[in-house]
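Bump. Still looking for beta-N-acetylhexosaminidase structure tokens.
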Amino acid sequence: MSTRAFITGVSGTELTAPEREFIRAERPWGFILFKRNVATPAQVAALVAELRAVAGAADAPVLIDQEGGRVQRLGPPHWPVYPPGAVFASLYDTDSALGLTAARLSARLIAADLADLGITVDCLPLADVPVPAADAVIGNRAYGTEPGKVAAIARAVTEGLEQGGVLPVLKHIPGHGRAAADTHFKLPTVDTPRDELERTDFAAFKPLADLPMAMTAHVVFSAVDPAHPATTSATMIADVIRGAIGFQGLLMSDDVSMNALSGNIADRTRAIFAAGCDVALHCNGNIEEMRDVAGQTPELSGRALERAKAALAARKPPQPFDRAAARAELDALIARANTASA
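Sorry for the wait, here they are.
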């Protein structure tokens, strides 16, 4: 069965009758979960199964933002707390091999949690490179301020997810680290010259261009396109994301409902596809907005469909794994990082 080129959220811990009708009629390619959708492991697993059943697609991707730190949709008492990216960065500075090991272990443990629930995609890793004057929305989620280090830790996180049978989504391409505003509320403009962006922000993403999926940044880079954020900029997508960075996987937008984008939801959705994104993401579970997104979303076809198929095909079965031993090793490494930074 064909699908439409969007990923949608839903409103709560169970599907409503209008949501079931919407999913059957509009055929989203995938789904994304948030804290409002989470109560217990059994409930989440049942919701994930129902999403796929209603969609009529056993392999429909179900996404979540499970980074650790401030961005963790699954948490106590049913799921453990995971460290933010800055912990891996700190440990990397002490011993790069241990920093990479900790990042890989954390992601592998997260993948095990997600696999238990049937969640197949994690919106991780970040390759954003923050600067001192930036908004704190990235902050300690980042893996450092040096592009090579950021890319190395992001690669380790990717490996951990993949070893656990979970697909990664690289974000926020081509970089959110310089943004002086939180894109949930406002559109930031970065005025850094192109050559410096190439050396820093874009450079962190380039070694990760082989990842199967990436999420755009709602950020204007005036040196490339002063009028549009990367998400709705054909120039940014063709020249920077597909060109200079070389990313050829499935490109999804960041959330359509974020206030960094201008116009109504329908306008935003049209602009996302006109710019060259393969898939639009809508997160807030508002059924009227969901309908507006669906109304402007094409069938998933052509090159976008090829990329979507390739992304799903990249997911491998989980490798053998001793969860208790991995958790003990990660805890020991976190303790070491905390001691080093004290």
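The chain has one domain: 4-341.

Edit: fixed formatting.
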